[in-house]
Write a structure and sequence with these properties.
six-stranded mixed beta sheet, six-stranded antiparallel beta sheet
Length: 297
């Protein structure tokens, strides 16, 4: 993030009752959106206060013309990508009615996006329509420490048109961020080979930058599987998984990097411990719990 914001912003202004939602928009949200790569015109566009009819409200036997208006609709390649709602500094943006309101914008038939965000000047919170808890939450004062995660989720390069994959549709999908040129790792994913006539062979190379932390192997009645744990930039984790199914076909995947254009946030240390305990043990990040004997029943 450029040093002009938020370093030079006086955050004590947020305690002034005259610093309201319109000030949050102009002084805080607008610079963030510009830095992410959105502008008032072009393919990656900021659409402000887009009015859409409310499709769900009917009182008695009459339809009432209720309109809902999200503060910002962000478009990538001229297609809807995500929505952002601005609030006053004294408003709650991580739970309650404000989150429900922003969620209603995201799922509206005229918008239909997977991510929505709220900002009150003090906090910036990002949600997925598929999850209850925020996928990212940080104090705006400390935006520099969370900037890589925010950009990974919401910059235009993190989206692509579903139409490129399916030939039609309105939604945007996530794509794996491009790795840096130096020290990249290449992993082939998809169905790598097949002896089954009804399984189409498919392969794709994903390039990323990471440090190999651990490797494990497991086997069950369906066949052997291999796992590799990588630490990506900014402390993120990704797991490379490959499996041979009873000698019929081989399949591989890279988890935690949006490899298939679906929402797949980076794996946290806790998720590694829960989902891949053997990898966590091998990498030395096994969970340690301490119990107070006085509280045991």
């Amino acid at each position: 993030m450029k040093n002009s914001f938020p370093t030079n912003f006086d955050f004590s202004l947020l305690e002034n009752p005259e610093f309201k939602e319109d000030s949050v928009r102009e002084e805080i949200i607008h610079p963030i959106l510009n830095e992410l790569g959105y502008t008032a015109s072009g393919q990656n566009r900021i659409v402000r206060s887009k009015a859409v009819p409310h499709p769900f409200v009917k009182i008695g036997s009459k339809n009432h013309g209720i309109t809902i208006i999200p503060d910002y609709l962000l478009q990538v390649q001229n297609r809807n990508a995500w929505v952002l709602d601005a609030k006053s500094p004294n408003e709650v943006v991580f739970s309650g009615k404000n989150v429900e309101q922003a969620y209603s914008y995201a799922i509206h038939p005229d918008i239909r996006v997977k991510l929505y965000a709220l900002c009150n000047g003090k906090e910036f919170v990002v949600f997925s329509v598929e999850e209850f808890e925020p996928v990212l939450r940080f104090p705006v004062r400390a935006i520099n420490s969370s900037w890589a995660d925010l950009k990974w989720l919401l910059c235009p390069q993190s989206f692509k048109k579903e139409a490129e994959k399916l030939g039609s549709g309105l939604d945007l999908e996530f794509v794996v961020p491009l790795a840096e040129e130096e020290s990249t790792i290449e992993k082939e994913i998809g169905v790598l080979w097949s002896n089954l006539l009804n399984v189409e062979e498919y392969a794709e190379v994903i390039r990323f930058k990471g440090q190999l932390l651990a490797e494990t192997r497991a086997e069950d009645s369906s066949g052997p599987s291999w796992y590799e744990l990588y630490r990506l930039k900014n402390g993120r984790y990704a797991v490379y998984y490959s499996h041979v199914h009873r000698g019929d076909y081989g399949r591989a995947d890279l988890r935690g990097v949006n490899a298939w254009g679906e929402y797949d946030p980076p794996l946290t240390e806790e998720q590694i411990q829960d989902k891949y305990p053997a990898l966590a043990k091998e990498a030395g990040i096994i969970r340690i719990r301490e119990f107070d004997p006085n509280n045991l029943r």
